[in-house]
Amino acid sequence: MDAGSLDGCAIGLDPGTNDGDFAVAAKHHPDAPVFSSETYPGWLTHWKEGWQKPDTADPLRSLRYLLEHKRSFNLYVVHGGTNFGFTAGSNAFSPVQFQPDVTSYDYDAPISEQGQPTAKYFALRKLIGQYVGYKIPEIPPAIPTVEIPAFTLHPLTSVWDNLPAPVQSAQPKPMEALDQKQGFILYRTRLVGHKSGSLTITEPHDYALVFLNGQFIDTVFRDGGKWTVELPKTSVKDPVLEIRVEGMGHINFAQYMIDRKGITDRVTLNGMTLMNWDIFSLPMDDAYIRGIGLKKGDAAGAAAPAAKGSSRPGIFFSGEFELKEAADTYLDMSHYKKGVVWVNGHNLGRYWYVGPQQRLYCPASWLLKGTNKVIVFDLHQQDAAPVEGVRQLY
User: Fold this and answer.
1) Which of 182, 217, 286, 319 could lock onto 210 through a cystine, CB 3.0 to 4.6 A?
2) CATH class as words, domain 148-157+285-390
3) What is the third-level CATH fold of 171-275?
4) Does residue 15 contact residue 40 with C-beta atoms inside 8 Å?
5) How far apart are CA 175 and CA 103, in angstroms?
6) pLDDT (tens digit per residue) in 212-239
């Protein structure tokens, strides 16, 4: 409390749902107003977890205490949201732990990501209604949603055919050193010493794909500290090693917030540090997307030669669907593996087959009456598959 409040300012407790919490605040600052600044009705979800669904009994218990004692409070959050684009963050509480957030920030909130009241909302509304001296307004009409029949995407091009000019560096550099804050980055070098064996990336931030002579070898995920893969023997004199890294969200809490993306230290092969790298920035921002022609109208074009059947995953798929009227929807990406989705040029965020999220929220404001264009960049998928629009997150 001494380090987290200022004289003359209101004190927000986290969460502040019992007499003891308020007594501590009163002892430190007896004249300051005190409130519950974060009363949690839900919680966030990380990749590889199940959807967080906290019991409604706990927020009801907390809220009842606050109402009975006439305490002010803030519900965090009352309305779920979305980490569109690359804005999802991460947690980490040790050097080898990494917990990236899913794209959805639905949070199991009383009002869902898409703006619909939930059973939790009605329970909280009923409780609050018992303590206010007026009639609570009626609930607004439901926000319209639409189902979109399945449509199949087509390979458009590959990331390998859309590389920018590289930056040469003796050692790998993180994205931030190249004035890049998010997206992807590619590192390339030739193996002039050791040709095969144990390849270690220190540290990969956050999800890396390793290629040798154009052949996909393995993935390395930051979480857990297992950053070594085995490179097979090859007959090529100086094999080409490529490592494509995806930044999956900057750590936004606690002591590991200085969180550079890409390869943050070095790469070794059998303990030998590899040198002389070409580094390609792949921010996948609006300028990059425009640069590969994904907004120029040929969304369903024929497959580029390097896209179909390439041994190096990293393909852009494209397609389109028709709408009679624009309405909210969720694009179901369960037939794809891991990647990013753009609709009419808007980045909906990430999906990943490990779950739990395979449906991405698309608001009506990003959709058009008539033809809508979809772009998917998948890190692993090489064959076209269908996508459909559904009405709910899960």
Assistant:
1) 217
2) mainly beta
3) Jelly Rolls (2.60.120)
4) yes
5) 21
6) 999 999 999 999 999 999 999 999 999 9
